[in-house]
Design a protein that fits this description.
Layout lengths: L3 E11 L7 E6 L21 E4 H9 L2 H7 L2 E5 L7 H12 L5 E5 L7 H7 L4 E5 L5 H8 L4 H12 L3 E8 L7 H12 L4 E8 L5 H7 L13 H12 L5 E3 L5
Parallel strand pairs: 2-4, 4-5, 5-6, 6-7, 7-8, 8-9
Antiparallel strand pairs: 1-2, 1-3
Helix pairs in contact: 1-3, 3-4
């Protein structure tokens, strides 16, 4: 029987969500309620469009030559992909039949369970978004505490899975000196982190927010500037971390 799931959209020639040229599948549904989310329409697990593993893989196969030539692969993103465990696992198994490099772009808000253990067998790289180190500030910003996320980071680190840490620089909310110090110390405690990316906050999701909710929660927060990124990068560098300031908008 064909396994069905719900996706929001796909991107066929992504270049910032993992190495090389990547086919990105954005899963529908997210347990976080980030105030800075630019894809507010991904939250509802019943939204997006229903599809099958076979349909997704058939489309991906057309791009394998480009992936192979660039050292790329497939990135499973969202929303939060692990909300659809059965669909995700089935898709991963099919992708590995073609020896495709697979990255999981996740919030890390995942319950440590047997299904996760199985999924991680097929993952080559985890792109882990860490929003904030302060439990209180994290909950205010995303609607959930960060303990599960930090536990997930330690869990995949212990397994030796390559990790890229991503952090959104939001002026006055996530770029304080103390906040950066705590995050730097946490990153330094992990052995499998291969890259740390700073992503600039932007308010381009405002229209979707106002269409769905009637308001935008960060109305008075300015977009991150190049100066904001450089300052944060310099602060992280004080702890010996090599930081990449990505042009990708958060």
């Amino acid at each position: 029987m064909s396994i069905k799931g719900r996706i929001h959209s796909v991107e066929t020639f992504g270049t910032v969500d993992g190495p090389g040229i990547r086919y990105i599948v954005f899963f529908q549904g997210c347990p976080l309620k980030c105030k800075f989310c630019h894809n507010r329409d991904t939250w509802n697990l019943q939204g997006g469009k229903e599809t099958t593993v076979e349909a997704v893989v058939e489309d991906i196969k057309k791009y394998i030559p480009f992936m192979n030539a660039s050292g790329g692969g497939v990135t499973i993103s969202g929303g939060e992909p692990t909300l659809q465990m059965e669909f995700l696992l089935s898709l991963l198994k099919e992708l590995k039949k073609y020896d495709i490099h697979v990255a999981l772009d996740t919030s890390g808000f995942i319950k440590l369970q047997p299904e996760l253990e199985e999924i991680l067998k097929y993952i080559d790289l985890v792109l882990l978004d860490i929003k904030h180190m302060s439990p209180k500030k994290h909950k205010d910003l995303t609607g959930v505490a960060n303990d599960r996320i930090l536990s997930f980071a330690k869990y995949i680190d212990a397994k030796g899975i390559d990790i890229w840490i991503r952090h959104v620089v939001i002026p006055t909310l996530t770029n304080g000196i103390e906040d950066i110090e705590l995050m730097a110390q946490f990153i330094l405690s992990l052995n499998s982190v291969k890259k740390v990316e700073l992503l600039p906050y932007h308010s381009m999701g405002k229209f979707k927010w106002k269409t769905i909710e009637g308001f935008y929660p960060l109305e008075n927060i300015p977009d991150a500037t190049e100066g904001d990124l450089l300052k944060a990068k310099h602060s992280f560098a004080q702890y010996g971390l090599n930081i990449s300031s990505e042009s990708k908008l958060a």
